[in-house]
Amino acid sequence: MPSKITNAPTQTWASIFSDIYAEADKDRIPEQIWIAIMAHASTIGESIRTFSVEQLSKSAAHTFCWLCSFINRCMVLKNDIFSIEEPLYGVVTLKYPSLCGHCEKRPCGCDPKTMDAKEDKSAKYSRLLEFRNQHLPSYEGWSINHFIGMFNDIYEWRVHIQTLESIGFHFLEEVGEAAVAVRKLSQLRSLRSTKGFDKLFNELTTVEKIVKNYEEFVKDPKNIKLTNRDPEMLKMRVIEAKMSLIVEIGDTFSWFCGILNKMRAIEHAIWEEPKEHTNFRFPDLETALEAEYLDDEGKPICPTCGISPCNCAFYSK
Predict the structure, then answer these.
(1) Is residue 154 assigned to a domain?
(2) Distance between CA atoms of residues 219 and 125, nearest Å
């Protein structure tokens, strides 16, 4: 299939998905969209287990679509605990501002065994925010291939020594941890009607404000008591949950790119020593997105109903 879009900014794809699904998503709450992300992430896991290359490529395209749709939905919500004014690249680059969010190096210099043993894996978010803000304007023009390449530069040696299955397990773990953050926010949504919390909801809409509130009011999440209904404790819970969502989306996207980088490495290894009749190919994500979400003329379409805006029948209102 000839390329219709070459190295388009991630925001271009986010806009394409909005054209297709904004109408269908307008009555969905973010929790419902994250359930869809989990469903498609599970098909990535199944594709890895069966080593179904074609299905893995397709599942990756659908997962990326729903991830963008989640952010798109959060961006249009007003005065909601999920409201955010940041596109996907703005969210991801807090934890990964062109370097590892833990050791702050590129390539990563973390010792995996030491990191896994840490009870608190929180990064130095204020420092990462400084790194991010220095480069944020350039991220706006980055394509999905740029981000995949960035994560390859950071974690290539870890991708090399880990199996595809291990990377897939990490990816599914992060999707689940993001679901925990989604659940926390969902449980606190009704605080909007409590005095002072509507202002807090409206303030926690940018990465910078989320980090500043986290550093000022939370500091140590272990101090949060779920049985304490004091307004200051509830405020800490809201801020911690919003911070967790930002971080876990970044981690989810990192391991998602890790899967794609591992598949590319497998492809290169096969073709370095080609056997007779070798035809293993793993389409890059951009190609898979084009095949699923663009028609022959390059116009957006829903791959299920074949039109845009999506006209599939949903009954979740």
Answers:
(1) no
(2) 11
- Cβ burial 83-95 (10 Å sphere, 16+ → b, else e): bbebbbbbbbbbb
Residue 151 lies inside a defined structural domain of this protein = no
Say how many domains are in the chain: 1
Q: Which domain holds residue 242?
A: 10-86+165-293
Q: Does some domain include residue 148?
A: no
Q: Is the pLDDT of residue 199 over 50?
A: yes
Domain membership flag for residue 198: yes
Nearest Cα neighbor of 260 from 98, 2, 101, 44 is 44
Answering whether pTM is above 0.90, one says yes
